[in-house]
Amino acid sequence: MPELPEVETVKRGLQPVMEGRVIARADVHRPDLRWPFPTNMAERLSGRAVKMLRRRSKYILADLDNGETLIIHLGMSGRMQIDLADTAEFHQAAPILKKHDHVVLHMQDGTRIAFNDARRFGAMDLTDTASVERHWLIDKLGPEPLGNEFDETYLIGALKKKGSPIKTALLDQRIIAGLGNIYVCEVLFRTGISPKRKASNLSAARVASLVPAIREVLTEAIESGGSSLRDHRQTNGELGYFQHNFAVYDREGQPCTTGCGSKIFRVVQSGRSSFYCPKCQR
Ligand SMILES: [Zn+2]
């Protein structure tokens, strides 16, 4: 499942080929992904200029010149495949439709952008740009962790009455938008907070320490996504998932990176694996 940094990386990869460019033609090869596509999606996209690409939580938003916004969600396995018009490969053989290329945007400059999604948990929808924050996928989301609304005062207030474990509370998209399992594990390790600790029992100072840690962990991942992006664009133009190195995530049984002598443990909370060091995280 891509998390916020991966979605931000995909958005940054799409910006140079979409922003300020015209979608000459959209091909839509099936009626739905996770949910049905909006009515006449191909017609509504064809001929439209993309004014701006934005991200809200794990959604990529493409504002079009007709007052509509295309909402793109990568789901579990969604990828964006970019084939530039000026690459050698393109001239040798125009890219053929690959299996699971469900929506293909043919840009006016010849670039081809395919939304490929083998498991079909992804989604695309069109909505009025003016009311995108009221769209049903977006209207219940909390503030962006890298935005101005998210700060120490906000988080202390939001967690004050949460009886759930801190791990579960931080995964609640109504509290913070876009934070997922991997980065919550990393944030809790970095702040020395046990994933099992009840959110409402944490001191204000410890809750406050989560805010810079969340920002750091996400920013570092976005930066590392940026370097993968350069590699990926040089290779096959596919935007989707990147390998990161994590301190605790998926490291069960391996030694803690602080050198404390303990191993990383795994516990299942709300159906998700939490990885933590019992010695460093209290
Ligand atoms: Zn440790």
From TrEMBL:
Task: Reply yes or no: does the keyword Hydrolase apply.
Answer: yes
Q: Which GO terms describe its molecular function?
A: 8-oxo-7,8-dihydroguanine DNA N-glycosylase activity; class I DNA-(apurinic or apyrimidinic site) endonuclease activity; damaged DNA binding; zinc ion binding
Residue ranges of the Formamidopyrimidine-DNA glycosylase catalytic domain? Answer: 2-122
Q: What is its EC number?
A: 3.2.2.23, 4.2.99.18
Which amino acids does the record list as binding DNA? H100, R119, K162
Q: Where is the FPG-type domain?
A: 247-282
Which of UniProt's keywords are assigned here? DNA damage, DNA repair, DNA-binding, Glycosidase, Hydrolase, Lyase, Metal-binding, Multifunctional enzyme, Zinc, Zinc-finger
Task: Output the superkingdom of the source species.
Answer: Bacteria
Catalytic activity annotation = 2'-deoxyribonucleotide-(2'-deoxyribose 5'-phosphate)-2'-deoxyribonucleotide-DNA = a 3'-end 2'-deoxyribonucleotide-(2,3-dehydro-2,3-deoxyribose 5'-phosphate)-DNA + a 5'-end 5'-phospho-2'-deoxyribonucleoside-DNA + H(+); Hydrolysis of DNA containing ring-opened 7-methylguanine residues, releasing 2,6-diamino-4-hydroxy-5-(N-methyl)formamidopyrimidine
InterPro entries in the record: DNA_glyclase_Znf_dom_DNA_BS, FPG_cat, FPG_Glyclase, FPG_N, H2TH_FPG, Ribosomal_uS13-like_H2TH, Znf_DNA_glyclase/AP_lyase, Znf_FPG/IleRS
**GO process terms (BP):** base-excision repair
- Give yes or no: UniProt keyword Metal-binding: yes
Q: Which family does it belong to?
A: Belongs to the FPG family.
Q: What is the protein's known function?
A: Involved in base excision repair of DNA damaged by oxidation or by mutagenic agents. Acts as DNA glycosylase that recognizes and removes damaged bases. Has a preference for oxidized purines, such as 7,8-dihydro-8-oxoguanine (8-oxoG). Has AP (apurinic/apyrimidinic) lyase activity and introduces nicks in the DNA strand. Cleaves the DNA backbone by beta-delta elimination to generate a single-strand break at the site of the removed base with both 3'- and 5'-phosphates.
Quaternary structure note: Monomer.
Name under which the protein is recorded = Formamidopyrimidine-DNA glycosylase
Species, as recorded: Litoreibacter meonggei
